[in-house]
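Ticket #4471: structure export looks truncated?
Reporter: QA, pipeline team
Priority: medium

Steps to reproduce: submit the single chain below to the structure queue and open the exported record.
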Amino acid sequence: MAADDQSTLPRRKFLGRASALAGLVVSFAPGMRLIDLADAKPDDEAASAEVRWGMLVDATRCVSGCEACVNACATEHGIEMTDRPEIDAQWIRKVDLIDEDSGREISLPVMCQHCEDAPCVAVCPTGASFRREDGIVLVNKHTCIGCRYCMMACPYMARSFIHINLVGQRTHSPRGKGTVESCTFCVHRVDRDREPACVEACTEAGHQALLFGDLSDNEGELAKRLGEVQSQQLRSDLGTNPGVHYHGL
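Actual output as written to the record:
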């Protein structure tokens, strides 16, 4: 497998890789009012710092070639795939890794890591990239100017720039041509006590490779599972403290 293919990488290269992109194009989808996801909590209830939403990805359960999580994300957020993959949005992507010493191959999804100290937030000149009190990192499409500084700062290549005219948009998941976007942990679902679409799809597919929950709830299923298995965060050396943990890397 080619080492330079973003979807198939040596394990060491994957864990140490960073992205670098630049450019500026800004225009909003005509007739589309982009809502501020910071107000997604029902009944004017503010996001609470007592909660830290996170996810455990079990690479021992993730199946190579399975795209259930990717397809569910695209359907949930109205992401249209084109015949130009280089400009398609990638809120969640599957990556195949090879251990160059043992030859072991694993497959896993990579998405926004919802970092505690998010580089994308730190470099955003307008404050469009922001982190909610409950740890979910989002982009306010009203104030995003499409500078793509956040894309350059993200060590996980987790953000996409919208180049194309948008169709089939979802009112619960605002997007805009000329802006940057990334996984939102399906915040519209989370705020209504539902799991992200990718987690639900993975469970329905019978893999149970994704577990979502409150990292700060010691009695919750996620925290208990993290206490039982060995896990790691991608690029933990950067000190961003991602909300996504991986088991089986």
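Status: closed, not a bug. The export was complete when the record was re-opened. Leaving a note from the reviewer for reference: The chain is about 20% helix and 15% strand.
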